[in-house]
Each structure stands twice: as C-alpha cells, then as structure tokens.
C-alpha cells in the first residue's frame, strides 16, 4: 500500500509540474496581397496586348486595351501553322507568334503612379511616367530621340481587378 501511495504521489507531482509548463509561441507569417487564396479568379492577372488609347480621368487615366495571345514554343508553331502564317512543322520566326483574334477593347484604370517601362535605350527598357506613355499613345514623343521600338510591339500589363499596376513594353527582334 505504501508503494501505491508513493507511486500516486509521484504521478500527481509529475502532472502538476507538466501543467504549469505551457509555452506560448508566436509565429509571424507575411502574406502577399497578390497571392491567390481559395477558389475563383486570381487576384492579379498578367496580359499581353496593345494600348489603343489613354484618356485622362480623375487622378490617372482610362486605358482601352486590345488583349492578344503572345505564344511561344510548340503552341506558337501549331497556332501559326493553323492560321497559315508558317508551313505545318515549321517553327515561327523568333520563337513567338502573336494571336489577336477579336480586337475587343477592354477598359482599365491606370493610376498616375503605375510603373511603366518603355524601350527607349534598347531592349532593357527605361522607366517612364504614365503621362509620358499617354503621350506616346497619342503619337507624340516626349523624349529627345525616337523610341528603340514603337509601342505597337505591345505591352505586358499587370492588373489587380480593374486597375493596372504596371505596364512593360515587349521587345520584338
């Protein structure tokens, strides 16, 4: 009996010690607002296409954009062959094919502080303002020399809902 009491006392002592040894751990997790969570459309889209107009509106611009497919690799080769742009089995020039079937214009909001790069000094691009891009779209050149390539090469836009976050001109060799 004495052994049973000692055993019971040891268990009670162990349990009371364990109960007082809780430890709080705080874990910090950084979540990117553009990261997709759950079902539905992604929170951010990247599209290729052509800027048709930029009209001042509020503190920024309203952009009309003609989205297109910028295809590469086998996808480009097959699509171009189906369209008669190359012979079946032949590769597309420069490994890309731009497919613009509908010419439907989409409307986007472009804040005045959106990030823009244009090909002014070669293929790396130069950061320009949205206002300067709007002038280029209107056929004006706000720079001391011509662009490296015309803006008709197209742009990649990064969009969150209906607002453009960045525009990057595409280089076409």
Overview of this protein structure:
The chain is α+β, with helices and mostly antiparallel strands. The chain has three helices and eight strands.
Alpha carbon gyration radius: 29 Å
Query: Per DSSP, what share of the residues sits in E-state strands of 2 or more residues?
Result: 25-35%
Number of helical segments with 4 or more residues: 3
Compute the average pLDDT: 85
Helix content: 10-25%
Summarize the biggest pleated sheet.
8 strands, mixed
Task: Give the SSE string.
Answer: HEEHEEEEHEE
- The residue ranges in which pLDDT falls below 50 over 5 or more consecutive positions are none
Shape: globular
Counting DSSP E segments of at least 2 residues, the number of strands comes to: 8
Based on secondary structure, the structural category is alpha+beta
Amino- and carboxy-terminal Cα gap: 93 Å
Question: Which descriptors would you attach to this protein?
Answer:
32% strand; alpha+beta; globular; 173 residues
Topology:
Elements: H1 2-19, E1 45-57, E2 60-72, H2 73-82, E3 96-99, E4 106-110, E5 115-118, E6 126-128, H3 130-137, E7 155-160, E8 163-169
Parallel strand pairs: 5-8
Antiparallel strand pairs: 1-2, 1-7, 2-3, 2-4, 5-6, 7-8
């Amino acid at each position: 009996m004495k052994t049973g009491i000692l055993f019971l006392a040891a268990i009670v002592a162990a349990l009371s010690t364990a109960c007082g040894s809780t430890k709080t751990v705080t874990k910090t997790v950084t979540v990117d607002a553009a990261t997709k969570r759950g079902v539905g459309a992604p929170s951010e889209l990247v599209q290729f296409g052509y800027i048709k107009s930029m009209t001042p509106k509020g503190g920024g611009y309203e952009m009309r954009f003609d989205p297109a497919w910028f295809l590469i690799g086998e996808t480009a080769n097959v699509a171009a062959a189906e369209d008669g742009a190359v012979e079946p089995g032949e590769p597309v020039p420069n490994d890309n094919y731009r497919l613009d079937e509908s010419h439907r214009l989409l409307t986007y909001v472009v804040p005045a502080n959106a990030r823009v790069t244009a090909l002014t000094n070669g293929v790396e691009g130069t950061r320009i303002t949205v206002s300067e891009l709007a002038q280029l779209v209107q056929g004006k050149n706000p720079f001391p020399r011509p662009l490296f390539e015309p803006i008709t090469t197209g742009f990649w836009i990064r969009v969150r809902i209906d607002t453009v976050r960045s525009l990057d001109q595409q280089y076409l060799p």
